[in-house]
TrEMBL record:
Domain Carbohydrate kinase FGGY N-terminal as annotated: residue spans: 8-253
Keyword terms, alphabetized: Kinase, Transferase
Molecular function as annotated in GO: kinase activity; phosphotransferase activity, alcohol group as acceptor
Pfam families: FGGY_C, FGGY_N
Chain ranges of the Carbohydrate kinase FGGY C-terminal domain: 269-457
InterPro entries named among the record's database cross-references: ATPase_NBD, Carb_kinase_FGGY, Carb_kinase_FGGY_CS, FGGY_C, FGGY_Carb_Kinase, FGGY_N
Keyword Transcription regulation carried by entry: no
Name of the protein described by the UniProt record: Xylulokinase
Tagged with keyword Transferase: yes
Family per record: Belongs to the FGGY kinase family.
One annotated GO biological process: carbohydrate metabolic process
Length: 509
């Protein structure tokens, strides 16, 4: 319920398959949350779309749920902001009405156009402008070029091309604007100059006037229109504030706002958000670089296709007894697996794994690489293989950290998110292998938290991000490296790197 003198903000995280919402007060306390999923339209191959009205309708429902559940009066909610998926775009007419379904970032129809763009500009020139080392069908520019060729009627009618965050801001305020972090992966933004890249726009056949105005994150756009206030249940005095790309919002929501900090998500895959002072656009780094939601900063985004997924694969194929025990006792099956791994000494008596079940991401970027167990000996049991998998994922993370360190990019703290961050054993092995402190947040919904903090910045509830993070982002657990283990792992890491190098030519045979 309302408390006298308390004001509130709402954060919305517009994800690929769901929208989450959070209501936070001016003391950084989470009042309530809500979530609603939706199903993407796919053909099982390259097409991936969604009716754009779903984004707006679900956002409105989420906000109404937050207001109703909390009992907060709408006039006490001062602002709303967004965390959003990148690349997904919606062509709209002059009234902001969608001309077709949103083309989701996962849509792969623009492979031919990606090759055309790469051939036109060259990989180094694209990296130097956009921070993207690879030209993929994921990026918005490739999809717009596809639209030009394959849906010329829609292309000719498009007044603006909007990302999901841009679309929601327009529906809230009637203003066409975007922000640097979410625009960074379109291939249309010059991340150094922070302006639209004219040569790219010319090549794909659109003008700067067909894109929204560029802003920083956490900037008030305007108050809600009467229509938006009616649809959401908010007040016409509520401010809409520019948000951030979901990884950048997640960094803010975990207090990763200074150079030297890194947010690390170990879910099915692995992704890092490494905050840096200056853009890293040397093609040799092979790491995506994007504008941070923190004004003036950037972040690198090392990634791997398989991380926690490797342990899930092992569980599904070889751990039926543990799954049955979990079903009978209510215990978490992964706790049962890591319990076996804990009984095995660090380094697993020389057993090494390469966790590349679907090729490698950074820093090797080798789609031909496969998973490997090396050093199997008599007497090794299931616990050895489980520990080897966990160590392999952590060694892969260290390899990315060491690669960045070799280019003068140093990380001092790892903020761990995702499923693995809830397991004490994973976190300790990660600290031991990397030699870095690992911190887990009390609240794991960091992207939508970041959106709330940006709403608070834009409305003046929070003085700045430093203050906002201090009062709202609470550490859950901290894990310091055990130096005896770290010393052992230094040798283990060298063997891990050597094992990959030894097989690199083998995969080409």
């Amino acid at each position: 319920m309302d408390k006298e003198g308390t004001t509130y903000v709402i954060g919305i995280d517009a994800g690929t398959t769901s929208i989450k919402g959070m209501l936070m007060d001016n003391k950084g306390k989470i009042i309530t949350t809500a979530k609603q999923e939706y199903v993407l339209d796919t053909d099982g191959e390259d097409i991936c779309e969604l009716d754009a009205e779903i984004y707006w309708n679900v956002t409105c429902q989420i906000i109404r749920d937050l207001v109703f559940t909390s009992g907060i009066k709408s006039e006490h909610i001062s602002g709303v902001s967004f965390s959003s998926q990148g690349e997904t775009f919606i062509p709209v007419d002059i009234s902001g009405n969608p001309l077709r379904k949103a083309i989701i970032w996962l849509d792969n129809r623009s492979g031919e156009e990606a090759v055309q763009i790469k051939n036109k500009f060259g990989a180094q020139a694209i990296m130097a402008k956009t921070g993207q080392p690879e030209v993929l069908p994921t990026w918005t520019a490739t999809k717009i070029l596809w639209l030009k060729k394959n849906e010329p009627q829609v292309f000719s009618q498009a007044y603006k091309y909007l990302l999901v965050e841009d679309f929601l801001i327009f529906r809230m305020t009637g203003t066409f604007c975007t922000e640097y972090s979410v625009a960074s992966s379109t291939l249309c933004l010059d991340i150094l100059e922070k302006k639209w890249w004219k040569e790219m726009l010319d090549f794909i056949g659109i003008s700067e006037s067909q894109l929204p105005d560029l802003c920083s994150s956490g900037v008030p756009v305007g108050t809600l229109t009467k229509q938006a206030a009616s649809a959401t249940g908010l007040s016409i005095k509520t401010q809409c504030v520019t948000g951030a790309y979901d990884h950048a919002a997640g960094a803010i929501g975990s207090a990763n706002i200074h150079p030297g900090n890194a947010t690390l998500t170990i879910g099915a895959s692995m992704a890092m958000c490494v905050t840096v002072n200056n853009p890293v656009v040397d093609f040799s780094t092979q790491l995506p670089c994007q504008c941070h939601a923190v004004d003036g900063l950037y972040f690198l985004q090392p990634y791997a296709q398989t991380a926690g997924m490797v342990l899930k694969w092992f569980k599904d194929e070889f751990c039926t007894p543990e799954m049955e025990e979990a079903g009978q006792t209510g215990k978490d099956v992964y706790d049962l697996l890591t319990g076996q791994a804990e009984k095995v000494a660090p380094g697993v008596h020389g057993l090494l794994m390469l966790p590349h079940l679907m090729g490698t991401g950074s820093p090797e970027f080798n789609p031909k690489a496969t998973g490997v167990f090396f050093g199997i000996k008599m007497g090794m049991g299931k616990g050895h293989f489980i520990r080897a998998i966990i160590e392999a994922v952590c060694l892969m993370i260290r390899h990315n950290l060491e690669t960045m360190k070799g280019r003068g990019i140093h990380v001092s703290t790892l903020h761990a998110l995702g499923g693995a961050s809830g397991n004490r054993f994973w976190n300790q092995v990660l600290a031991d292998i990397t030699g870095l402190p690992v911190v887990t947040p009390e609240n794991t919904e960091t992207s939508v938290t970041g959106a709330c903090l940006l709403a608070g910045i834009g409305t003046g509830i929070f003085k700045d991000l430093e203050m906002a993070c201090k009062i709202s982002v609470k550490p859950g657990f901290a894990f310091e490296p055990i130096m005896e283990n770290h010393t052992l792992y230094n040798r283990h890491y060298k063997r891990y790197v050597k094992l990959y190098e030894s097989l690199e030519n083998f995969w080409d045979l």
